Amino acid sequence: MFEWLADRFYRWRHDRRRGRPWERGPRARGLFPAYADWGGGMAVDRAGEVWYAEEPAGWAARGVVAEPDIRFAALAVAVLRHPEIAHLAPVRTAGDPACPTCHGRGYPAQLPPKLRYWIVCQCGGLGWVPTALANRPRTDRTAGDIPPVA
Ligand SMILES: [Zn+2]
């Protein structure tokens, strides 16, 4: 019972649909905030371009996100948060696999409730990743090393 309550509490607490103070910068420039992490904030414009700024005051001189994994996750988070840009949602093709980190859940359930909704999954919450991203060689520990939750 406690685990269920903790899960619901942290799901509510980290609900990305709720606004955060850092989002004022991208919103003031017509962008749709996705998420922020230790490296800065990510936001998407109406054309689907993914932008970042390292600090809240940096949105005037923002940069384009080049890393395909980050672009996919940020776009996924943004389209799930903002119905205005839902038409930009990535389209899953027949060969695209389930997300190797969350195994289709959209969040890493193998983490404790306090963390599973706070951390953005590599799929951005969609539960799948494009084949091209799934097959990219990785030199670090891969998300696929994490066993699925029974
Ligand atoms: Zn995932």
Explained architecture:
With 150 residues, the protein is α+β, with helices and mostly antiparallel strands. It has a four-stranded antiparallel beta sheet, covered by helices on one side. Strand 2 and strand 3 form a beta hairpin. The protein is globular. The relative contact order is 0.15. The mean pLDDT is 87. The site of zinc ion (ZN) has 8 residues, from loops.
Say how many strands there are: 4
Based on Cα principal axes, name the global outline.
Answer: globular
Give helix % range: 25-40%
The pLDDT mean sits at 87
Structural class: alpha+beta
Number of domains: 1
For the CA atoms, what is the radius of gyration?
Answer: 16 Å
Biggest pleated sheet: 4 strands, antiparallel
Summed up, the helix count is 5
Low-confidence stretches: none
Strand order of the largest sheet: 1-2-3-4
**Chemical compounds bound to the protein:** zinc ion
List the secondary-structure elements in sequence, H or E. HHEEEEHHH
Intertermini distance: 18 Å
Oligomer kind = single chain
Structure characteristics:
four-stranded antiparallel sheet, binds zinc ion, 150 residues, alpha+beta, 26% helix
What's a concise summary of this model?
The chain is of the alpha+beta class and 150 residues long. It has five helices and four strands; from the N terminus they run ααββββααα. The longest helix has 14 residues, at 68-81.
